[in-house]
Amino acid sequence: MPYVFLGLGSNVGDRFAHLQAAVDSLSDAFAVFAVSPVYETAPKYESDQPQFLNAVAKVYTEKSVSDVIAAVEQTEKNLGKHKKPTTGGKGPRTIDIDVLFMGGEVFDQNGWHVPHPAIDERAFVLAPLNDIAPAFRHPVLQKSMAEMWAAIPSEEKKSVTKTDLKLTAVSSSVVPIASVDQAEQLIREVGVDDVYSVKSMAQKTVTKVIRLKSVRATMANILKQEMLSLGGDAAVHKDAVSCKVDKTDVLLIGTLKQLRQLVSKLRVQVAEAQQIAYAVDGALRETS
């Protein structure tokens, strides 16, 4: 059960700030692998309330089902979740986190139902799911998110509007390098001036390049030193080296063995390093 999809929603106060706080808090418990675009949506069940902002987070974890649920409940509690008791949980709330999928698990216990039983009727869930996981298949209905989104009536689709708001989280992806020019372009995107050493490594067929997004500058420098100690390398923004920026993208460049060694080293360090370890491990699993 490595991947879990979590639905996020807020319609009270600074809605975007509440969603970002949820992503930040979830990052303490999981490796947040991807976050969808943010949608503004009309209330579906109780119309007499403000518009919602909704998104979906894809996280990587090795936690058990019960531990995932406990982590989600604790996150909601920490963020001051509030629902009007008269609306049956469908009224205004500062934050709401639904466990949509836990890999292919089917779970029904203590009021928790996984997959979430209302996914197929909720445009505000399927729109962001289709953005980040169109090929993922519902383990019970055996339909992909793209197929389920296509089945939503057109009038229902009009109730959701994609915004320009962007939630940030440490996330990762394996980047295939097909040419020297592509390697150089990718490295320059991160903000590295001297591209010789990292470019020469990125060109090697045995090398994998993993892009981590929104890493703290201090941690980015630690990752570079760790990769160098393992015989690999990392591309870090030049301003992150002197900590002139708070966050930066990082390219981890190394062999599969080196990257797995990095994961092992990070897993026994502080929570921030452990989160990156899960993100890197998740990226490697996607390509294995």
Poorly predicted parts: 83-87
Q: How many DSSP helices?
A: 11
Biggest β-sheet description:
6 strands, antiparallel
Shape: elongated
Compute the CA-based radius of gyration. Answer: 20 Å
Strand content: 15-25%
Give the end-to-end Cα distance, rounded to a whole number of Å. 16 Å
Q: Overview of this structure, please?
A:
With 288 residues, this protein is an alpha+beta fold. The protein has 2 domains: 3-162, Alpha-Beta Plaits, CATH 3.30.70; 171-287, no CATH class. The protein contains 11 helices and 12 strands. Strands 1, 2, 3, 4, 5 and 8 form a 6-stranded antiparallel β-sheet that branches. Strand 6 and strand 7 (112-114) form a beta hairpin. Mean pLDDT is 84; it is low at 83-87.
Helices, strands, pairings?
Layout: E1 3-10, H1 15-26, E2 31-35, E3 39-41, E4 52-60, H2 65-78, E5 96-102, E6 107-109, E7 112-114, H3 123-132, H4 145-150, H5 154-157, E8 160-162, E9 171-175, H6 180-190, H7 196-202, E10 207-216, H8 217-229, E11 233-236, H9 238-241, E12 247-255, H10 256-266, H11 271-287
Antiparallel strand pairs: 1-4, 1-5, 2-4, 3-4, 3-8, 6-7, 9-10, 10-12, 11-12
Helix pairs in contact: 6-7, 10-11
